[in-house]
Design a protein that fits this description.
The complex is a heterodimer.
Chain A (H helix, E strand, L loop, with lengths): L18 H9 L4 H29 L10 H35 L8 H24 L30 H29 L12 H32 L13 H35 L6 H14 L15 H13 L1 H15 L8 H24 L1 H7 L3 H31 L5 H21 L1 H5 L16 H31 L37 H6 L10
Chain B lengths: L16 H34 L17 H30 L8 E8 L2 E6 L4 E4 L1 E5 L9 E7 L4 E3 L8 E3 L5 E5 L5 E6 L12 E7 L1 H12 L8 H12 L2 H4 L23 E2 L4 E2 L2 H9 L1 H4 L12 H12 L3
Parallel strand pairs in B: 1-5, 4-10
Antiparallel strand pairs in B: 1-2, 2-3, 5-8, 6-7, 9-10, 11-12
Helix pairs in contact in B: 1-2, 4-8, 6-8
Classes of the chains: A mainly alpha, B alpha+beta.
Chain lengths: 558, 322
């Protein structure tokens, strides 16, 4: 009886609000849905800004000894591009989707700690603003500095006061400390919500894969942010209170920073990729019309990836001189993580197998994700072999590899997630016609840029160089890479236009436009503030499948 | 038509044992990942085509939730592949990093600076900068070059792809590296760890010489500076020694004993200045001395603010230091 009462068909009454009332309601909201949207809009803004920086970088590198920007400006560009994309695009956009979807998918009314949710958003937002304020305030006493120019991983002792005078490095440190608060708070919220607010009947074994993956991702954030925070505090102590943790002139250790950073940095990239997997886990089954193949293995593989990712960090340090023992260990641990990752790819393939695949916009992006993530994983395996990394580490091959993951896998899944859940959040479908333009331009641009970017790495081009010599043979590849960047920029602008115009002109979505199976599709589009009028009660992993197929419910098989 | 010489830093054109070993393992890795790519992509494309929803075909297909046998096999097989890959890589790690230095090896200390390379040959009494000469190594009587590397400031990285993988120069730490070049020639590379404004122009030039040419080079480098042969050059030396130049630069056999900048004793014997970034011609040298930041913005050598006469004199002196 309780299963049929899951669906809320109450029509939402919309009172007329003054503009200032609207602004006030957003500024003071503790509703996970509004906070989720704010995270996402914030991240989209920075995506465009950091994307513009990438275009500047690629134009400067189109030809050898170019003078489009000075070395000082270039070095700030790549530092800000990386820092922004990881901390002010990747993390917020993924936390935004998690904030929006996790309570809905577990049948909860909101997150466990709504006020902390709001606090962590605003403090993260402050972090981003602080980082960009460095363009104005970074000069410090010496008239040196500006935005940080030490690379997004800010290796010591380059970040010590003697080599980075002014305050640019401090803006890097402080803004990331702020945004770290946001990450930790949201992770606590996600884990507490999933543990204690699942609706009736939803055991952990019936949790949809998206909340499962966000659960593991939140665990990783809680473990990994500590080392980064500690290192940043040590750096501040070095810079201002006379400590010498990383001050090699006084006997400190440069390698210490590198260890601390990558103990954070490697789990961080899994923090970024697990939500992308989460989106694929929801979209691929719905558009193949088949349940995900091997749910228990998918959960086990995710947990395995979470734990193993804590043990691979020094594959970023194969060239720092750790010695054969450590190089061998980290080669092994990194190669092992390929096994659960491969299991996921095979499970997605098996989900498609025997299905009825439809190529609507969310699925287009997830299909591209499958091909691209496979390649990204394979170049990762190449880099995991320490000797190969001795050549390719810190080269354009690495840049190509990680952009293959960040753009080819993660960003593509994020685009898919937008097309899939926008109808739920906004009540309107996005334009499929514009989506196809977005998709194909993005695919062409992505492959032009990042396929060909592997080659200069193999031909000896290191990363973070503002120019290069004409006699190295890198020029033609850099030109192709630059052309692809322009395609991607146009594609992204089409996407942003689609987001805005669909809000006003999109076809009304209805409650369940994709004929999907998880709880968020059981309430109206957009959901009411309280999500569900009655607490849902579920008997399987796909409660809406059970309602739509009473003759063949999942509960008979699980 | 591009040829292999158009790619001087190509790791797939190895010319020394460490680079050869890496080439071998990389071929194996590429073959294995290539095969996996073909297999999985093939299956993906097949699935996407074969299982497309046909028009008018509504209704959901048979739901399959998993298969223990299939899932076990695609766990075990990758584990075995990983094991194979790991053992191959481990072998090269050990063969490269656990070596005993032959008695006839050439020892070079490499010290990284922002934005240039300092080279010292402790057993030969040579100090030079930016261009390194080493002998080829005959496998029957090996004379490999063994480098001990560190930095005075930030982390740098020494990368000559045709000779070996890269190794970082870390301040307050010494990292060893070696290579045994098998062909004479000039090998190019550059700093591979971001080290500040002019990281991009911290270029590497390794000259691999025949044993005879190497001996000639060593003999020349071991000599103190050439004394000025005429009045103009002597005047240049006087200007050099009266200015702040001597605070940073060393010219062996004179009173210039600065250690912060490159050793200039045999500057005129080098093909390039500014760590490989600028050809070593009198015009370029003069421009460099006038204001290094014009040519390499962010270089740590300040503009010397010499008048034209002194500038000409010092340049003449520098070009005499063969």
């Amino acid at each position: 009886m309780a299963a049929t009462q899951v669906v809320d068909i109450t029509e939402q009454a919309k009172p007329k609000e003054l503009f200032l009332q609207k602004v006030h309601s957003w500024l003071t909201t503790v509703d996970h849905k509004k906070i989720g949207i704010m995270y996402i809009v914030y991240a989209l803004f920075f995506l465009v800004v950091a994307g513009a920086m990438a275009l500047v970088i690629r134009i400067q590198l189109m030809v050898p000894n170019n003078h489009f920007v000075s070395p000082q400006v270039f070095n700030r560009m790549f530092t800000m591009h990386g820092t922004t994309m990881v901390f002010f695009v990747g993390m917020p956009i993924l936390f935004g989707f998690g904030n929006y979807l996790v309570p809905l998918m577990i049948g909860a009314r909101d997150m466990a700690f709504p006020r902390m949710n709001a606090f962590t958003f605003w403090i993260s937002a402050l972090g981003g603003i602080l980082l960009y304020f460095s363009y104005l305030g970074g000069d410090g006493l010496y008239g040196a500095g500006s935005a940080p120019d030490v690379g997004w991983f800010a290796y010591a002792p380059l970040t010590e006061r003697v080599f980075s005078p002014g305050h640019s490095t401090d803006y890097w440190t402080l803004s990331l400390l702020l945004t770290g608060i946001g990450s930790v708070g949201t992770s606590i919220n996600i884990m507490a919500t999933i543990i204690s607010m699942r609706c009736k009947g939803m055991t952990m074994g019936r949790l949809p894969l998206l909340p499962w993956l966000y659960f593991v991702m939140s665990f990783l954030v809680l473990v990994a942010i500590g080392p980064l925070t500690a290192a940043q505090v040590m750096l501040l102590l070095d810079r201002y209170l006379g400590a010498h943790f990383f001050d090699t002139q006084a006997g400190g250790s440069a390698v210490l920073w590198v260890h601390f950073f990558w103990i954070f940095g490697h789990p961080e990239v899994y923090v970024l990729v697990l939500p992308a997997f989460a989106f694929a886990n929801e979209i691929i089954p719905v558009f193949s019309r088949k349940a995900i193949f091997g749910y228990p293995a998918m959960v086990a593989a995710t947990v395995a990836i979470g734990f193993i990712s804590l043990s691979v960090w020094a594959h970023h340090m194969f060239t720092i001189g750790m010695g054969p023992g450590a190089n061998t260990f980290f080669t092994l641990s990194t190669m092992i993580i390929a096994v659960p990752t491969g299991i996921k790819i095979f499970n997605w393939l098996a989900t498609l197998w025997g299905g009825k695949i439809s190529f609507k916009s969310p699925m287009l992006f997830c299909v591209a994700f499958l091909f691209q993530f496979l390649i990204a994983g394979l170049t990762g395996i190449m880099l995991s072999a320490a000797p190969f990394d001795w050549q390719l580490g810190n080269s354009y091959f690495v840049i190509a590899h990680f952009h293959y993951v960040l753009v080819g896998a993660i960003l593509f899944c994020i685009f898919g997630a937008f097309y899939y859940w926008y109808p739920k959040a906004m009540g309107r479908m996005m334009s499929e016609r514009l989506a196809k333009w977005h998709f194909w331009l993005m695919v062409i641009g992505f492959h032009l840029t990042f396929d060909f970017m592997h080659v200069p790495g193999l031909l000896g081009m290191p990363r973070r160089i503002y120019t290069y010599e004409a006699d190295r043979g890198w020029e033609s590849w850099n030109i192709i890479v630059g052309v692809g960047a322009v395609f991607q920029a146009v594609a992204t602008l089409i996407f942003v236009y689609n987001l805005i115009s669909s809000y006003y002109k999109g076809e009304i979505a209805g409650r369940d436009p994709w004929d999907a199976w998880t709880l968020e599709w059981a309430t109206s589009s957009p959901p009411p503030a309280y999500n569900f009028a009655l607490e849902p009660s579920v008997g399987s992993r796909r409660p809406l499948w059970d309602i739509k197929h009473p003759e063949d419910p999942d509960s008979s098989y699980e | 038509m591009a040829t292999i010489v158009d790619y001087p830093a190509n790791m797939f054109n190895p010319a020394a044992t460490p680079a050869h070993a890496i080439f071998g393992v990389s071929m194996f890795v590429l073959a294995m990942t290539g095969a996996i790519f073909v297999l999985v992509t093939g299956l993906l494309i097949y699935a996407l085509v074969r299982f497309r929803q046909r028009a008018g075909d509504t209704g959901d297909p048979v739901q399959i939730f998993g298969s223990n046998q299939i899932e076990t096999s695609w766990t075990v097989i990758p584990l075995l592949l990983v094991l194979m890959l790991f053992l191959t890589a481990a072998r090269v790690i050990l063969s490269t990093e656990r070596v005993t230095k032959p008695v006839a090896a050439v020892d070079v200390d490499v010290i990284g600076h922002q934005f240039w390379w300092e080279y010292r040959y402790p057993k030969l009494g040579i100090i030079t900068a930016n261009e390194i000469h080493v002998p080829i190594s005959d496998p029957k009587h090996p004379t490999p070059t063994f480098l001990e590397m560190s930095s005075v400031d930030v982390i740098h990285s020494f990368w000559i792809p045709r000779l070996a993988g890269k190794m970082d120069l870390v301040p307050n730490r010494v990292n060893p590296m070696w290579f045994d070049p098998e062909k004479t020639g000039l090998y190019l590379g550059q700093c591979a760890q971001y080290c500040g404004t002019q990281h991009a122009k911290m270029l590497l030039r390794v000259y691999v010489d025949s044993p005879e040419d190497f001996a000639t080079w060593v003999a020349q480098q071991q000599k103190p500076a050439v004394a000025p042969a005429d009045a103009a050059t002597a005047e240049g030396k006087a200007v050099f020694e009266a200015n702040a130049c001597v605070n940073c630069h060393r010219v062996q056999g004179t009173t210039s004993k600065g250690a912060f900048g490159p050793d200039l004793t045999h500057l005129a014997s080098r093909d390039t200045i500014a760590s490989g970034a600028i050809p070593n011609t009198p015009e370029n040298l003069r421009k460099w001395i006038a204001d290094p930041n014009e040519m390499k913005p962010g270089a740590l050598m300040p503009a010397m603010r010499l008048n034209d006469h002194d500038l000409d004199a010092v340049t003449k002196y520098m070009t005499s230091l063969r």
